[in-house]
Write a structure and sequence with these properties.
Blueprint (H helix, E strand, L loop, with lengths): L5 H15 L2 E5 L1 H8 L6 E6 L2 H11 L3 E6 L4 E6 L2 E7 L1 E4 L8 E4 L2 H6 L9 E3 L8 E2 L4 H7 L1 E2 L5 H7 L2 H13 L2 E2 L1 H9 L9 H12 L5 H9 L2 H5 L1 H4 L15 H15 L3 H9 L4 H4 L1 E3 L3 E3 L3 H15 L4 H13 L2 H4 L7 H11 L3 H10 L6 H25 L10 H8 L5 H15 L7 H11 L8
Parallel strand pairs: 2-5, 10-11
Antiparallel strand pairs: 1-2, 1-8, 3-4, 4-5, 6-7, 8-9, 12-13
The structure holds adenosine-5'-triphosphate and magnesium ion.
């Protein structure tokens, strides 16, 4: 279905607002992106009047769905043709130092624009018939869009102190729009960073994932690091800075390397799980870093240390189990394909990796490809060519014996019957022996062969008579 041009909706919604006698404006990201000529998504409206009532009427007349209202905040939203429409009542906010939640009262459009985070987001466009398309721009947002500048409308310290999440939003918009942050705004981000400690983890994590979701996540991440914000929201990541490493596979400092890996992953895949994993895959390095004569810096077992760290990190960030399992698994395995480079790759080494990666083998290979970074483009090219060879070997082995869906062809209940065993650890051990024999290539991955092998070894496990 072709998506309707957004101005068609604006005219229709403006007409409904006229009938209801409400002044209505499109605001925020929609107006900004329209001026920038970017694709627009959700549309936010400010109503000088009862926004939830107008939203309900609009949803009814235009056959929208998924209507949600938050009376307490004077906001409501619905969906139409896959697009989200948000309505808020124009309001003024007063923050008190002792409370995180502002005092809110219904107010004018001007007051509403004053409470917004950045000048480029504090633009409004009228949608009522009279004056349709007029832009209200009290803080020179259009000038800042031209200059590609993120700047707060009011005093930046105050703005960030009132709602410290705005510090992360500044970094996010700089990345999303590829804008600079004005020097006094940047200084205030660093100055007010401690205030982020009062923001809920859910809001912080959501913003971090938004930063990761843009085409070049390193822009926002670098800003978080340079302002000292990363140290507060994600210290393990901040501490990768200054940890130097060998320059043949990777960039010098683990933080710089990590940013490059995230950008590389983002260039190949939209998957947020993969991007998050790229961000955390080397977190184990500082703990195991050692200088070895003749080798330089080494990081033995950093993938296992990193995997373990992710339990606590995912819990603290309140990430889902899906994030936890996926990032742990790929972190644990991320050295394996690289280790296959250069040696004579045996079928058995490839099979083991295929079995361990299971359905995530493509994602693992994408991560590993992204992980090849170096200041030296010649080296990157060489390593990528070697890596392609590993990928090809994996495909060959996979086609040959369909290892990915691997499971012992002999089931636990058969093992118990043949060996005369009760359920218990011995059954698992026997199953493992069979699987190992298949992975080593001692026997083929077939039922009859596995059964014959079981008969061969069963005496070692049978219970005493
Ligand atoms: P996106 O393109 O990501 O949707 P957006 O500018 O629409 O960008 P939203 O988070 O959807 O961003 O918020 C809509 C508008 O609400 C913003 O443009 C801004 O004017 C205002 N806003 C949102 N969050 C805040 C905040 N924490 N402090 C001040 N203003 C905010
Ligand atoms: Mg928006």
């Amino acid at each position: 279905m072709k998506r309707k041009d957004s101005t068609t909706y604006l005219h229709k919604i403006g007409a409904i607002a006229d009938r209801e006698g409400v002044d209505l404006y499109a605001v925020g990201g929609y107006v900004r992106d329209m001026i920038l000529g970017r694709k627009t998504g959700e549309i936010d409206f400010v109503a000088v009047g009862d926004a939830p009532a107008l939203a309900l009427e609009t949803c009814r007349r235009l056959n929208g769905h998924g209507f949600v209202v938050y009376e307490k905040f004077g906001t409501a939203s619905f969906l139409l043709d896959g697009r989200q429409f948000e309505f808020v009542t124009a309001r003024a906010e007063t923050y008190h130092v002792d409370s995180r939640n502002p005092e809110v009262r219904q107010s004018s459009l001007d007051d509403d624009l004053r409470r917004r985070d950045f000048t480029v987001n504090a633009l409004a466009m009228k949608v009522n018939r009279k004056g349709f398309g007029d832009i209200f721009d009290p803080f020179n947002g259009r000038r800042d869009i031209k200059r590609r500048l993120i700047r707060t409308p009011l005093d930046p310290e105050r703005t960030f102190s009132d709602d410290p999440l705005r510090i992360m939003r500044a970094a996010r918009f700089a990345g999303q729009l590829n804008f600079h942050i004005a020097p006094e705004t940047l200084a205030a981000m660093a100055g007010e960073k401690e205030r982020l400690k009062i923001v809920s983890q859910e809001r912080i994590t959501a913003e971090l994932l938004k930063i990761l979701s843009h085409p070049k996540p390193s822009i926002g991440l670098r800003i978080l690091q340079d302002t000292g914000v990363m140290e507060i929201i994600f210290p393990e990541l901040a501490h990768l800075s200054g940890v130097e490493q060998r320059d043949d596979y990777h960039h010098k400092d683990v933080f710089a390397h990590t940013l490059k890996v995230v950008d590389n992953a983002a260039a190949i895949s939209d998957d947020i799980l993969l991007r998050f994993t790229a961000l955390v895959h080397d977190l184990g390095k500082p703990a195991v870093k050692r200088f070895e004569e003749g080798l330089g810096w080494t990081f033995h077992s950093h993938e296992l240390v990193g995997e373990r760290m992710l339990n606590g990190i995912c819990r603290r960030l309140k990430l889902s189990n899906e994030f936890k399992h996926y990032s742990k698994k790929l972190t644990r395995l991320h050295m394996r394909p690289i280790q296959l480079i250069g040696e004579e790759v045996t079928d058995s080494a490839v099979r083991r990796l295929l079995v361990q990666a299971g359905d995530d083998v493509e994602a693992l290979m994408t991560l590993c490809r992204a992980d090849i970074t170096s200041g030296n483009p010649g080296r990157v090219k060489k390593h990528l060519a070697n890596f392609d060879h590993v990928v090809q070997r994996m495909q060959e082995v996979e086609e040959k014996d369909k290892m990915r869906a691997f499971q012992s062809p002999v089931r636990g209940d058969e093992i118990m019957r043949i060996c005369g065993l009760e359920p218990g650890p011995a059954v698992g051990r026997i199953k493992n022996r069979i699987e190992e024999a298949i992975l080593d290539g001692t026997i083929p991955n077939e039922y009859d062969a596995a059964m014959a092998y079981l008969h061969e070894i069963k005496d070692q496990y049978s219970p005493p008579h």
